[in-house]
Structures are given as structure tokens and as C-alpha cells.
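Recap for those who missed Tuesday's class. We walked through two folding examples back to back. For each one, the amino acid string is listed first and its predicted C-alpha cells come directly after. Nothing is annotated here on purpose, so try labeling regions yourself before you check the end of the notes.
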Amino acid sequence: MLQPLTAIDATRLRDFLLGAGYTEAELRKQQYFSELPSSRLRNFPRLLDRTSDRTCLNTLLRWFWLGVPQDATDSANLLPGWFVPLALSLGLLRQDGSQLAAPVMLFPVKDFLLACDHTSRIDACDPELVLWPNPTSKLLSQFTVRRKSRATLDLGTGNGIQALMAAVHSEKVIATDLNPRAVNFTQFTAVLNGLDNIECLAGDGFAPVAQRKFDLIVSNPPFFISPGGRYLFCDNPMDLDQLCRRFVREASGHLNEGGYFQLLCEWAEVRGQPWQERVTEWLKDTGCDAWVLKGHTQDPAEYAQHRIAETVASPEGDAQMYAEYLAYYREREVQAIHDGVIAMRRRSGQNWTLIEEITDIPKDAFGECVAQAFTARDFLREHASDEQLLAVKPRLSSDCRLEQFFQPGDGQWQPASLTLRLVKGLPFFVGLQAPVAGFLSGCTGTRPVSELIADFAHRVDAPAERVHVECLGIVRKLIERGFLLC
């Protein structure tokens, strides 16, 4: 466990580490972010060679990135005199004879430094491992709605990255975890980064915040669907996907009106039950609108192989473990395992649930796109009649692009198709006919839909009633998808 850090020591320590080049930008420059030291990759000798020069930064990298012990006298000579005594008192370093070892990894993300465990602890199958930021951490961060929040909950905080990101736009952040080691690391990380609006609590699920409500709850829970609880950070302690279901069912009781719950999850598809029905049951009668985006699907055999490879370093025992996974799935008649994200918003009244599949995850943040999607559905609900929608003055999003595709024919290029695409946020697109594209070009936010439709009907010389119906349908669809803003 790490020891409490004072604000003064935190500032001195953080300023020194960042000033020495222990930053995400510098590690990316040196290509450290492309891979972590791993027994699976057999990359340790190469990383040791790259840090062999005796410099201040290499000393820090060997301790806090690679987890390599170093000679106490040699390393101390490269650092300020106060650093080693302070690091020893905090538990960042440990004396072992003439060697100094770092039991903790310091992981730089953007302008933050996070305390987590070295990769060697996953090789040792430590059940209380606190994982470093990984692709799921990044996905949840990109997915999160970044609007001002009076109170935010990071449910299952792990290394604390979501809490740190939320602290920037939240008055108060509560970070909880079942693993006391994760709570300890997150508390240390909050102080190290000069954030005084994060409170860290240990406990199961929502129990530590039983009487509290939030404007935003985010969770990257242990969602692996596995037969055993090897690691707290990833293995679902309940049968199949029931932990994710539990969080969905309980979250609404901890949301303020208009508050969001955003969850990364996996769910099983069981024989005789479409996967959509399983997730719909989770969301029924929660008092929340819900948007489910399903990503990848794996069959049980493929899933078992991937999960074993991710969490077990040695191939010894793979056959027995694989057999246990498959027996677990067969007994429960699991046909497939799906992953995805769920966004819920607490709202009084009749709620809606939208379930969709996506093939591409945005590379950039798309939390604002999520918030706008909920707002768009509110707008369409408030403008349900044709008369209300005809008075609206829509405008095309600046993120729209119209793509023209051609194909060869008769010795020249022939127009083949038109596609309207969003270049930011979720990768939505719709196919259009050329006259409809012309109709949409008039959506500048200055003219009502009624005028646009009248002009369009005149240009195409089509029955007014038919044009009216088709154009209103297109306008509704494009508002819902974020192509048109109102």
C-alpha cells in the first residue's frame, strides 16, 4: 500500500517527474507507449537495452515503467537528494540490500500520473492486481459525456483514470472499488495530481454510496464472462453477465433527473433468447432512456481462447482452463458473447430504449455525440406532429460530408451513389439520391421545413403530398442521427 501524500510533497514530486520527461508525450516519442514490458512479447531485453544509458529519465523508466531494481548508490547520484528518501517513505521505492526497487508503476496519461501495478503482477496471477490504463479505459473515457456535473461516481475505479478525467468537469467525484488496493492507489493518484475534489471509498457496487445521487456515473466493471474469479479487476464474480445487469438495474436509483449512467459491458447470448431481449430486460422499468451500442461478437470457443491468453502468462494448464471455460458455457447454453456500451439517462415519463450495432469505434471522444443523441430524441418527441416539425429551421451539422462515388461505364465515369456521412462522433452514414441532397443543401438554419419542402416539390415536379411525407421522414431521421441540428 502507498502512504498518504501531502500537497507540498505531491507538487514537488509531480513537478520533478514531469520536468524530467516522465510524460506521455516523451514516452510516445521514445516509443514506449507502443507496448508494455511483457513476458508474452519477450520484449524485456530490448527495453532494458534502450534504457541502459545512465540518465535521470532512464533511471525513472527502469523503476516506474519496467519495474527493474537498480543500485541504490548509482541511481541516487542521478536524482535530487530528496527524491529517494521521499519515495521510500511513500512506498514508491523499496530497499532490498544494495538495490532499490519500485513496487508500483507510474503511468503517464495526458497531464496525469497514475499509480498502478507493474505488468509482472499479471504474470504472477495476483488477484488484487490494479491494472494500468488499457483500451477499455480509453473507450469509456471517449464515450463519457463531458458536461458540468455536480457529483460524479466512478464505479469500480481501478487505477482511477476515469475519476481523474471526471474531476476536471465535476464539482465532486466519488471513486469506489471492491479492491482496497485500487482505492489506495486512486487516493494517492488524486493527491499526486493536485485534485482535491475526489473522494475514494472501498466497497461492493453501490453500497459505499447508498444514500447518494449523481449527475454522472461511469463504470468499467469486471465484465469478463468466465468460470472463475482469478482477478478482481476483470472477472465477473456473478454468473455469466449478472454483475453488469445488477449495475444497470441499480444505477437509476442513484441518478438525479437528467443524470447519465455509462457502462462498458459484455453479455451472453443464451439458446432460445435473442441477445436483444436479454439486454432489454436489464433496462425495463428503470426510469431511464437507454441507448445500447453492440460492438463485437465472439463464439464461446474464440472468447475463451482470447481471455485465457490475456490473463495467463504461461501456457501450462491452458488445456484444463479451456475445458473449464467451455464446460461453463455449454452448461448454460451460451451461443455467443457480445460486448458494447450502454448509456442511460434518468427521465420522468415514458422511457425509450434503442439498441443498435456498430462496426467502427470512433478514435476520438464521442461523449458529446452521445448527449446530442438524447437531446435529439427529446426534440423529436416534443415535435411529434407534422405541424410542429414544419415550423422548425434545421441546419446541417458542420461535421457532415457528402461523398459522390462513380463507376466506369461507356468510356467515362458514371455517378453510382451519394452518401451523407458524419466525420466526427459515431460513424453514421445514409445513402441519398441527388434531388434529396439538393433539398438538404437548403438546410441552413434560416428557413422552415415547410418552405424547403414547397420549393423541393416544385423543383422535382412531384405530388405535394408524397413529397411532404418523404421529406418529413428524412428530416426526422437526420435529426435523430445528428446530421441536422435544430
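Example two. Treat it independently of the first, because the proteins are unrelated.
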Amino acid sequence: MGSDVPRALRYCDALGSQWDRESCYGGVFMENINTAIDQRSGSAGHQTHERSDVPAAIKADDPLYPCSGVDERFLRSCYMMQSSVVLMLNGYDFPQAFQACDKAPGPMVSTCYQSMGRDISGFSRREADQAIQLCSLGTLPQRDQCFSGAVKDFAYETYRAPEGFAFCAKLQAESKPTCYTAVGEQIFGFYTTPDARAAECAKAEPAFVDTCRRGAQITA
């Protein structure tokens, strides 16, 4: 690869826990994208780029690179960021970007769709109707994974579950379970106690309170 991505990933492998390694892998791929954006714009904006002379690991003729060139253990972390590369290369052509995600290997298709959801959330400035419209350009059944990625970003940016619930409430009935589960997963990270998580899930549409609770890992 034409960058320091392989070496950085090897450094991540030296970390002790799986969570630390996965977080490190994600950081490597995110920094690769930031480097690509800076180099395309001619900016030196990200001060962490100590070696701006090292080209980012992207290929104009392979929108899934570097994910298409890394070992299996790095795939999920890579594809969770890859939509940013795809959209940068194609000028934010969303239908074409979903087509690229559809070509990812097996289970990585859903991961790429989640990545698309996160980017769509930012692109729409967390305007729910536009985000839903853009996610709906994806193919079934992966479309719900785009909604999941978008709603997680909605909730994360405000650190408030109701922002996510408002998004889920706008979806068709068949897409709501995945959406409310995703908000529940965010709630699990927001609050340390089951009671606090339960209080947040209680704000969901009544039919999906239990769905949220399962996502938030509330067992009682």
C-alpha cells in the first residue's frame, strides 16, 4: 500500500485487548481518510499528519481500497469507515456509493451500509427526512443498516436518545425494530446504570420500548 497503513495496523496488533485493537484499527483507517481529504484539497489541516508527503492508501479505480487489500481481521474496522472514501471519489453520488458497498465481501456489505448511514447523517446535517431519503437509495435488505448507522450518529452527536427516537418514528414499520435497537445500543454507551437506560428507552414509541431495552442490554 502507498502509505503507512500496514505498519500502523501492525502497531495496533501489539495492544492487549480486542477492544483496544479494534479502536486502533478504526483510528488508522480514519486517519488515512483524513490524509486523503487533505491531500486532495491541498490542505495541511490535520495537524496530526506528521508525514504529509506519504500518500493516502486510496485508489481511484477501486473505491473499496484499502479494505480490499487488508487481512480479514481488519475488515470490519475498515468498512466502517470506507463510505467516506467511496463518496469522496465519486463526488457524493449516493446511488453509485451504495452499488460499491453491494460489492463488499459477504457480511461487510451491512458494515459498509452502516458507514453510509453515518456519512449521510453528516451530509444531511442530521435532517431526518433527507437522511431517510438518501438511505432509501440503497438496496433491500441492507437499507435498514443505513438507517442504523444514521440514527446512531443522530443520537451520538447530541448525546440524547430522543433525537434518535424521532428519526426512528419516521420510518416504515418494518424498519423500526433495527432503528430502535440501534438507539438502544447508543443508550448503553451513554448511561452506566440499567435504571438510567430504562428511563431513556421509556421515551421511545410504546411498541418499541422493549426493542430499545434489548439494544441497551436491559435484562430485567
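Answers for example two:
The chain is about 60% helix and 0% strand.
The longest helix spans residues 18-41.
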